[in-house]
């Protein structure tokens, strides 16, 4: 099964917590802190792999999580870093952040990789909080949060040459004759429901050719499976437009040629401007002196295209067509297309997370509630049996203006403030 779009959930590893520990040695009655730092959480990495051809595996597994960092240990031993999770995808896969709709990375080269979700930092052990005043810190830092994202994977096949044309004009037959590919070939109007790839070996070179599934009129509007098919043309360097010049199904070759070109233009001017060769197929059913063929040839050449008479099943004219395609690819290599323009995801802004330090105040019934990402990290680091640690939590909340916000909302002495799982009574210490 060919799958070219998938939605998955990814989550990096949480950072390991710092350790609270004190030296316990003979003849050292008041040993200092010796808690080690937690390990970093694993990253989620996407990597392009030339051996993959489809996103089918992501239909069966949709949730991917990297390993958490290990907690710090006594005797200043650091926790182990979590293993990175490497997710391999086919070359030509565009990775999109679902929430923003922005492209995170366009993976076009074999082995190309990027970090889609960074693991949380390891928390500091209590050795880091010792100072001249605080000789025995009884608290440590919690590990950093994991990153969670919903990701859209969209695959656009990477081929040098794309075969386009109406269904049943002989694209699959041409691919089978010119390459070692073995596409299903039957006399149906929608035989090909997914692109097929093959490698053309000619002279001392080779190139990849794709049979783009049959395009119908209105494909650029999404009719049939139009948009799904058309996007695979975007990465090709040149196009071969296959036309049934015999009119074997009562069609007009010139009309077919114009309709397909119009679909390409309506979908993308960039696609429509690609170099194009025209394959006048099924010449075994018509003579080159036939007025219908002559009219078609003169019309197409009048538009500036080269016409190649072929009959794919009997290998008539196929070599000449492939030789012309190889020559066009050499020209294209000298004048490469501009890369596709995307609106890219801003990793710098994501890493800074401007909302991280914000504390949000609300009221549920008679209870005042405080939430926030950094607040949660400090809360998770708090030792509720240690007054110094509790005082640090309160001072942080006060310094960030949260108490002032609650007073404006009507907070009075004796009222309840809830911070995550804990509830506190508010009393003005002054």
From TrEMBL:
One of the GO biological process terms: ribosome biogenesis
Gene3D superfamilies documented for this protein: GTP-binding protein OBG, C-terminal domain, GTP1/OBG domain, P-loop containing nucleotide triphosphate hydrolases
GO MF annotation list: GTP binding; GTPase activity; magnesium ion binding
Keywords: Cytoplasm, GTP-binding, Hydrolase, Magnesium, Metal-binding, Nucleotide-binding
Entry similarity comment: Belongs to the TRAFAC class OBG-HflX-like GTPase superfamily. OBG GTPase family.
Assembly information from the UniProt record: Monomer.
PANTHER family hit by this protein: DEVELOPMENTALLY REGULATED GTP-BINDING PROTEIN-RELATED (PTHR11702), MITOCHONDRIAL RIBOSOME-ASSOCIATED GTPASE 2 (PTHR11702:SF31)
Name this polypeptide is given: GTPase Obg
Taxonomic classification: Bacteria, Bacillati, Bacillota, Clostridia, Peptostreptococcales
């Amino acid at each position: 099964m060919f799958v070219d779009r998938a939605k998955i959930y990814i989550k990096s590893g949480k950072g390991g917590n710092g350790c609270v520990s004190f030296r316990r040695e003979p003849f050292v009655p008041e040993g200092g802190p010796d808690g080690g730092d937690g390990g970093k959480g694993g990253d989620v990495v996407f990597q392009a792999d030339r051996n993959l051809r489809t996103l089918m595996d992501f239909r069966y597994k949709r949730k991917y999580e990297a390993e958490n960092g290990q907690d710090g240990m006594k005797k200043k031993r650091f926790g182990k870093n979590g293993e990175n999770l490497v997710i391999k995808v086919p070359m030509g896969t565009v990775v999109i952040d679902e929430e923003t709709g922005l492209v995170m990375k366009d993976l076009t080269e074999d082995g190309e990789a990027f970090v889609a979700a960074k693991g949380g930092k390891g928390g500091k052990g209590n050795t880091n909080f010792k100072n001249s005043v605080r000789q025995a810190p009884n608290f440590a830092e919690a590990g950093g949060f994991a990153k969670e994202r919903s990701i859209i994977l969209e695959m656009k096949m990477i081929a040098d040459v794309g075969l386009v044309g109406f269904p049943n004009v002989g694209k699959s037959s041409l691919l089978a004759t010119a390459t070692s590919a073995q596409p299903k070939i039957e006399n149906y109007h929608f035989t090909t429901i997914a692109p097929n790839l093959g490698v053309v070996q000619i002279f001392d070179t080779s190139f990849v050719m794709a049979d783009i599934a049959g395009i119908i009129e209105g494909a650029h509007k999404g009719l049939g499976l139009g948009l799904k098919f058309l996007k695979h043309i975007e990465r090709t360097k040149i196009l071969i437009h296959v036309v049934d010049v015999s009119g074997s199904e009562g069609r007009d070759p010139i009309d077919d040629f114009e309709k397909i070109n119009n679909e390409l233009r309506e979908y993308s001017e960039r696609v429509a401007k690609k170099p194009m060769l025209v394959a006048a197929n099924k010449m075994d059913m018509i003579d080159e002196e036939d007025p219908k063929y002559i009219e078609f040839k003169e019309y197409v050449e009048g538009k500036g295209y080269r016409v190649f008479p072929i009959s794919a099943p009997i290998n008539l004219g196929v070599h000449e067509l492939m030789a012309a395609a190889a020559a066009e690819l050499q020209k294209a290599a000298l004048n490469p297309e501009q890369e596709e323009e995307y609106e890219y995801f801003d990793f710098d802004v994501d890493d800074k997370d401007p909302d991280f330090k914000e504390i949000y105040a609300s009221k549920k019934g008679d209870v005042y509630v405080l939430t926030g990402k950094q607040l949660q990290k400090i809360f998770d680091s708090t030792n509720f049996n240690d007054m110094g640690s509790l005082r640090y939590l309160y001072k942080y909340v006060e310094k960030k203006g949260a108490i002032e916000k609650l007073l404006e909302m009507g907070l009075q002495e004796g009222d309840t403030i809830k911070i995550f799982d804990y509830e506190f009574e508010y009393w003005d210490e002054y």
